[in-house]
Design brief:
Strand order of the largest sheet: 1-2-3-4
Order of helices and strands: HEHHEEEEEEHEHEHHEHH
Largest sheet: 4 strands, antiparallel
Structural class: alpha+beta
Shape: globular
Helix content: 55-70%
Number of helices: 9
Radius of gyration: 25 Å
Length: 339
């Protein structure tokens, strides 16, 4: 592979004198939503511990819940402040990243390694001998993300770029072909993920956890189990924020389906066993031994199956990456210009 195009480099260097990228508003809005949720969840959990826990542990339990949700609330507040203070600037051949606390700058001529990251919807890490800058692409608008990918991929030599093939297949190409005004059409071995599709999965889960929570709370006379559906509701809200209105396409071959079926079975069995231990009074120490043995087996089965599925999926992705890089090379009119 050789994606280093001297023509693109010449265009990039001549066209860019100064450009600044700011964190998008969606990031701030998510921070506000999470902050409200964690504040309410923290107050509710602390109140539940106060009225449910034994008198000698009531204060400690309530303080623990407040501290736990305070950390999550601070992380949400950090997202809000990041929208105001963080920025990425390209000035001539210097990349300047202004973080919440630190400010870093790297000259492109000093970059020794570029790592294309797949996690968190894609990222770019620039490394020199003395410093590094991590760019989270999801912080920026769609057109800005694509612009940054084209700029760094065409400006920096191929010899310093790592993991470009997989990044091109999973992040760059879908981003380039994305049309926000068009409902995606899934091809063979693909699924269209929409909010409605997730609702069909999450609503039954919320109902089941609510019913189980009511049963356990009534059996044990413990009001805190009434909060059982809180996790499912939180996941539902997160998916509503993450899934675009028109949906998105994901690959779904036999390896993906096998993993999904296994995780559904694994989670269901774990939930059933958990409530069995809660509702059944086994003698001690047999009860504690059974709990830890069940948890150990449950975890080992998950790790083994996850490793097997990950290896099969990785092999598939490497094969698809070769095709994706070829498609990316075919693009002729993608020089980095102002949006």
């Amino acid at each position: 592979m050789n994606d280093y195009d001297p023509l693109f480099t010449e265009i990039a260097e001549s066209a860019i004198a100064f450009r600044e990228f700011r964190v998008r508003k969606k990031y701030r809005n998510q921070g506000i939503l999470y902050l409200i949720f964690f504040l309410l969840a923290g107050i509710g959990s602390a109140y539940g511990m106060w009225i449910d826990a034994p008198p000698d542990r009531r204060l400690y339990g309530a303080v623990f819940m407040l501290i736990l949700f305070s950390f999550l609330s601070i992380a949400s507040l950090w997202m809000i402040l990041a929208y105001k203070y963080e920025s990425l600037t390209i000035q001539h051949k210097t990349i300047i990243h202004q973080g919440m606390i630190l400010k870093k700058a790297i000259d492109l001529s000093n970059v020794k390694q570029v790592h294309w990251k797949l996690g968190n919807k894609g990222g770019i890490t620039l490394k020199s001998l003395t410093d590094n800058i991590s760019i989270n692409l999801d912080n920026f608008e769609h057109d800005e993300q694509l612009w940054l990918i084209r700029y760094f991929q065409s400006t920096l030599p191929e010899s310093v770029q790592q993991n470009w093939n997989l990044f091109c297949s999973k992040i760059a190409l879908p981003l380039r072909d994305h049309n926000p005004d068009k409902i995606p059409t899934p091809g063979p071995d693909e699924l269209l993920i929409t909010r409605k599709r997730w609702a069909k999965i999450l609503v039954p889960i919320i109902l089941v956890t609510t019913i189980l929570g009511l049963i356990v709370a009534w059996q044990l006379q413990s009001p805190r189990f009434l909060l059982a559906p809180a996790t499912s509701i939180m996941i539902s809200l997160i998916f509503c924020c993450m899934v675009p209105k028109q949906g998105f396409v994901v690959r779904s071959d036999k390896h993906d389906r096998q993993l999904v079926h296994f995780l559904s079975w694994w989670f269901t069995v774990g939930t059933i066993v958990f409530f069995i231990f809660k509702l059944t009074e086994f003698p001690e120490p047999q009860n504690t031994i059974a709990v830890y043995c069940s948890l150990f087996v449950w975890t080992v089965v998950y790790l083994v199956q996850l490793h097997r599925s990950s290896q099969a999926i990785l092999q598939r992705d490497l094969e698809n990456a070769k095709v994706a890089v070829h498609k990316w090379k075919e693009e002729k009119d993608c020089e980095p210009t102002s949006i």
